[in-house]
Amino acid sequence: MFGYVKACKPQLKIAEFELYRGVYCSLCRALGRRYGFAARMTLSYDFTFLALFIMALSEEDVSFKAGHCSFHPTKKRMLCEGEGAKVIDYAADVAMLLTYHKLSDTVQDERFFKRFVARATRFLFKKDYKKAVGRCPTEASAAERYMVSQRELELQACDSVDRSAEPTALFLQELTMQSVQPDEKHREEVSRFGYALGRFIYLADAADDMEEDAKHGSFNPYLTSFKEPLTDANLTQRREYAAASLHGTAAVCAECYETFDIKRFDGILRNVLYYGLPSIIERIRQGKQEDKRDEQSL
User: What percent of the chain has pLDDT over 70?
Assistant: First the structure.
């Protein structure tokens, strides 16, 4: 996952922001506790959303307490606790699985310097990855299938945006299904939601990387699905095409969400779906770079 599923901070109420940051900080602590300090560098908004979503559907208790943060030692932050908050450890485990696979993908696809850094980082996380596999064998197997399928599509230079997004969509579908019981009445809608969310993440990342991938000859479905090479003249057209696909996918997420029995964090989740995702789409449509200051200021 790539950090595209996040809240629009200006639209969050103060209390909602504190809870959102509390889950974000709790995930950071879980990564450090379970996999060491370096694992905290892999913290992502996407896994924060995953933890929020699963807790929102859970009947188990979730509460918050004030605690200290290693990155902000002079300030107290809200930290998540309670039986329901155990899902944060799960999100940390899945984050480690995906981080390792993402590094492996970088080793195969990127140029020398990025490949060298990724290989060194992957070696650093090798033992942690094995721990994560032991804790989440089902998800580890799904992640492996997802990466193999994705790699095959890239080697084939797949010319279909929909097929290219399928592995990520199916993986997120499987992850979100961990939040529901076998007899859950909204099980089918949760499945659709997870699929659409995975599709959004993949398409947003591909659209964001379009120009860089064209420059370096890397695979990108927004390049292979059009016959003519990417130029300044048709770049706007490609971005508009990507934005339309992303809007349709975000609409499916919102449609499914309205059917769920949300126990908590409704305001935060709605913010992500109705403000956060559209703001990501608009940034991509305009070709703007992501502002990293938002993440650093949490």
Answer: 93
Q: What is the DSSP annotation of the chain?
A: --S-S---GGGS-HHHHHHHHHHHHHHHHHHHHHH-GGGGGG--HHHHHHHHHHHHH--S--EEEEEE-SSSTTSEEEEEESGGGGHHHHHHHHHHHHHHHHHHHHHHHS-HHHHHHHHHHHHHTHHHHHHHHHH-HHHHHHHHHHHHHHHHHHHTT---HHHHHHHHHHHHHHHHGGGS-TT-TTHHHHHHHHHHHHHHHHHHHHHHTHHHHHHHT---HHHHTSSSPP-HHHHHHHHHHHHHHHHHHHHHHHHHHTTS---S-HHHHHHIIIIIHHHHHHHHHHTPPP-THHHHT-
Tell me which fold the domain 9-296 belongs to.
Farnesyl Diphosphate Synthase (1.10.600)
Is the model's pLDDT at 161 over the cut of 80? yes
Q: CA 234, CA 203: separation in Å to the nearest integer?
A: 18
For helices 87-109 and 137-155, the axis angle rounded to 10 degrees is 30
Read off the pLDDT band of 284 (50, 70, 90): very high
Q: What is the pLDDT of residue 297?
A: 55
Range 7-11 average pLDDT: 95
Output the pLDDT for position 109. 66
Contacts of 174 (CB under 8 A, 6+ apart): 139, 142, 194
- Quick one: which of 193, 178, 207 has its CA closest to 254? 193
Cβ-in-10-Å burial (0-12, 13-18, 19+) of 262 comes to middle
**pTM for this model (two decimals):** 0.91
